[in-house]
């Protein structure tokens, strides 16, 4: 028998109306959002994010960088074939030079009242004759300098006056081995430059020119540093063009006794330009002509140092051949000025850096006689193999594009060198110290 529900009394049977949801409250979405933000301090994080974004957009504005014309960096084009790179390469690598590993161009103008930021610079061969004078100028300018030298021809005495300076570091190292540093600029001077030294070990000389240059270019590529190669007038060999322009390709004996140096430097120039074209490395090339001054090696076989040392020692001045071969001689301070202008400038080069004043060996001997000993005798000897007959730079390109030309004449600069040599040969400390001060200034 089925069961049924019985409602007693006045109770009514419940209605069977269908389900209806609760009416939607006004502003429900707004209140739900507010409750969400107030829960777990979410509102605090929103305000912190807004503050951080405001700070970032204030300190680092997103306005586009000013347009740099393609010709403003690497061009003021040189009108002949010496400009080795195409227009698309110039445009590709026309961004500002990295200063301090990624900041603005160090050569740009500094606003009035702001101090120039010092660079971190490595000078290979910085304890040598030219390198030590370059280090003096860079330190005086306020840069931090790292000298790398294996002391084959360099002397620690050339840079000892910088010991204790916090902006100076000295590393005994051969550039044939890799070197890891963080720098803004690289002056690559490391290589024996006199015939006595580079003929002593010709294989080592060409390794320094090739492997050493590769290592320094690799360093420049890794850290984005600007690289300056000190090449030489010897790339012209025994020239058939006189005076020599940078467009002249030279007349070099590739198998001669001097080729370890001549061809080594020519290869170094090739590597430098290949790294520029292929890897975008900022490079500069200087072709240095005969240079003299304090701190030269006394017995390095170069004609000026030979004549000065021989005259001081009362020995005959040895002239090789007939003495009619010509050379041009620049004082070391002029060369350093040219190197620094090239590094800080906008042009790759190569640039001839030398004094266009031309002297025969007999005329140079006469100037040394006038300066040191009028009674000094001249002794003739057979000429050396592959000795160039003429050497004189055409510096019109350096004048036009770097605003550089030598200022010190041979008769003015030679006495400063003589004073330094006299101090080192005979120990005249007073006179030698005055010479060093004069050459530094």
UniProtKB/TrEMBL annotation:
GO molecular function term, any single one: NAD+ binding
Cofactor(s) this protein requires: NAD(+)
Cellular component terms (Gene Ontology): Golgi cisterna membrane
Bias (Polar residues): 10-19
Membrane topology: Single-pass type II membrane protein
Transmembrane annotation, as ranges: 42-60
Gene3D superfamilies on file: NAD(P)-binding Rossmann-like Domain (3.40.50.720)
Domain NAD(P)-binding: 123-415
Main localization category: Golgi
Enzyme class, first EC level, given as a word: lyase
Region (Disordered): 1-24
Superkingdom of origin organism: Eukaryota
EC number: 4.1.1.35
GO biological process: D-xylose metabolic process; UDP-D-xylose biosynthetic process
Keywords: Decarboxylase, Golgi apparatus, Lyase, Membrane, NAD, Transmembrane, Transmembrane helix
Localization annotation: Golgi apparatus, Golgi stack membrane
Biochemical pathway: Nucleotide-sugar biosynthesis; UDP-alpha-D-xylose biosynthesis; UDP-alpha-D-xylose from UDP-alpha-D-glucuronate: step 1/1
Similarity-based family: Belongs to the NAD(P)-dependent epimerase/dehydratase family. UDP-glucuronic acid decarboxylase subfamily.
Function: Catalyzes the NAD-dependent decarboxylation of UDP-glucuronic acid to UDP-xylose. Necessary for the biosynthesis of the core tetrasaccharide in glycosaminoglycan biosynthesis.
The name this protein goes by in its record: UDP-glucuronate decarboxylase
Organism, as annotated: Gossypium tomentosum (Hawaiian cotton)
């Amino acid at each position: 028998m089925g069961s049924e529900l019985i409602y007693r009394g006045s109770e009514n049977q419940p209605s069977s109306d269908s389900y209806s949801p609760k009416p939607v409250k006004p502003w429900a979405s707004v209140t739900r959002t507010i409750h969400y933000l107030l829960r777990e301090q979410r509102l605090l994080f929103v305000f912190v994010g807004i503050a951080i974004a405001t700070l970032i957009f204030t300190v680092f504005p997103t306005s586009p960088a000013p347009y740099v014309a393609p010709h403003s960096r690497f061009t003021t084009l040189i009108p002949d074939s010496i400009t080795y790179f195409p227009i698309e390469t110039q445009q590709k690598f026309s961004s500002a030079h990295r200063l301090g590993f990624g900041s603005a161009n160090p050569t740009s103008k500094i606003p009035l009242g702001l101090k120039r930021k010092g660079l971190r610079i490595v000078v290979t061969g910085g304890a040598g004759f030219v390198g030590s004078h370059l280090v003096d100028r860079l330190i005086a300018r306020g840069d931090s300098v790292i000298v790398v030298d294996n002391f084959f021809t360099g002397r620690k005495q050339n840079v000892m006056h910088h010991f204790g300076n916090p902006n100076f570091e000295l590393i005994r190292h051969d550039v044939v081995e890799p070197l890891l540093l963080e720098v803004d600029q690289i002056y690559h001077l490391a290589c024996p430059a006199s015939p006595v030294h580079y003929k002593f070990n010709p294989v080592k000389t060409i390794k320094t020119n090739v492997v050493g240059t590769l290592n320094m270019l690799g360093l420049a590529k890794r850290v984005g540093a600007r690289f300056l190669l000190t090449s030489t007038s010897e790339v012209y060999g025994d020239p058939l063009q006189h005076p020599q322009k940078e467009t002249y390709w030279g007349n070099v004996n590739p198998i001669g006794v001097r080729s370890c140096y001549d061809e080594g430097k020519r290869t170094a120039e090739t590597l430098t330009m290949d790294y520029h074209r292929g890897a975008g490395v900022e490079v500069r090339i200087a072709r240095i002509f005969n240079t003299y001054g304090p701190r030269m090696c006394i017995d390095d076989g170069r004609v000026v140092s030979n004549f000065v040392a021989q005259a001081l020692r009362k020995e005959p001045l040895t002239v090789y051949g007939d003495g009619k071969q010509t050379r041009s001689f620049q004082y070391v301070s002029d060369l350093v000025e040219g190197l620094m202008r090239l590094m800080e400038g906008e042009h790759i080069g190569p640039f001839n850096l030398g004094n266009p004043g031309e002297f025969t060996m007999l005329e140079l001997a006469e100037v040394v006689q006038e300066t040191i000993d009028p009674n000094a005798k001249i002794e003739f000897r057979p000429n050396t193999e592959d000795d160039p007959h003429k050497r004189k730079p055409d510096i019109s390109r350096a004048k036009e594009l770097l605003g550089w030309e030598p200022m010190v004449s041979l008769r003015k600069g030679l006495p400063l060198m003589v004073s330094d040599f006299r101090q080192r040969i005979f120990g005249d400390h007073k006179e030698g110290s005055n010479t060093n001060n004069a050459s530094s200034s």
